[in-house]
From TrEMBL:
SUPFAM superfamilies: P-loop containing nucleoside triphosphate hydrolases. It comes from Puia dinghuensis. Gene3D superfamilies: P-loop containing nucleotide triphosphate hydrolases. InterPro entries: P-loop_NTPase (IPR027417), Sulfotransferase_Stf0_dom (IPR024628). This is Sulphotransferase Stf0 domain-containing protein. Residues 94-186 form the Sulphotransferase Stf0 domain.
Length: 244
């Protein structure tokens, strides 16, 4: 990739898999111009994708400025009303970074904490305070059970889809990027290789390490201890995912 418009890439990520940090990392690269979740209606973009025609039109507009899109999706179809548009979207890209999380249960807990607090990233002390002082409602057992029973099956369907459509993809897990700084830096280099981009120079090392740092993570032991049925749900569902 010699210039910002030669080839485009999509980060295709489930929620709470570290996609925002990965987006911020790639946005540092001189050959990448990135946009975050253009089809998420809670953002202030005006891109529409209610059908195939609107999706194509919006992507044409986006590609006029950006060559990497971060797209967060849900196994039930969000952010589109028509779930099939998620596959239509990735089909339009030359390369896909498929970002997932090994623990479905932990992903769901993190997403529920964010949903209840309306805080998705810790950037200020006020956001930290909201998370640390909120009285959380119990976790939705029905939602957790559905995800534990179905999520990895749906993820496998996407892997099969990529292979059938001959879409080049790099599959990576949250745990492989953010649980170990050394391993995280290695994964970043591997993703840059996949995109045929140069590795980051030494001047970015401090920033990269900061973005990989999990000290400001939303989910802490203090937060988990204030979720009424967390331990009950953990004992019942953690580690019970049907892995592909």
């Amino acid at each position: 990739m010699n210039n910002k418009n030669q080839e485009d890439v999509i980060i295709f990520a489930l929620a709470r898999t570290g996609s925002e940090s990965l987006y911020n990392i790639f946005n540092l690269h001189e050959n990448l111009e990135c946009i975050s979740e253009p089809f998420n209606k809670s953002n202030n973009y005006t891109y529409h994708a209610g059908n195939e025609e609107e999706l194509s039109s919006s992507l044409n507009d986006i590609r006029g400025q950006f060559n990497l899109i971060k797209h967060v999706w849900d196994p039930k179809g969000w952010p589109f009303q028509d779930a099939s548009l998620n596959k239509s979207l990735v089909r339009r890209f030359k390369k896909v970074i498929f970002l997932n999380r090994k623990s479905v249960f932990e992903r769901l807990v993190s997403a529920e904490i964010c949903r209840q607090s309306k805080v998705w990233h810790i950037r200020t002390l006020d956001q930290r305070k909201i998370i640390d002082e909120l009285e959380f409602s119990p976790l939705n057992e029905r939602a957790i059970q559905w995800a534990v029973e179905n999520e990895n099956r749906i993820v496998k369907q996407y892997i099969d889809f990529f292979n059938a459509e001959q879409i080049a993809f790099y599959e990576v897990y949250y745990e492989d990027i953010f649980h170990s700084e050394t391993r995280g830096l290695q994964r970043i280099d591997e993703m840059l290789d996949f995109m045929e981009l140069n590795h980051f120079s030494g001047k970015y090392e401090v920033t990269l390490r900061s973005l990989l740092n999990r000290e400001n993570k939303i989910v802490t032991e203090n937060v988990l201890s204030r979720i009424p049925n967390y331990l009950e749900m953990k004992n019942k569902y953690a580690g019970q995912e049907c892995f592909r």
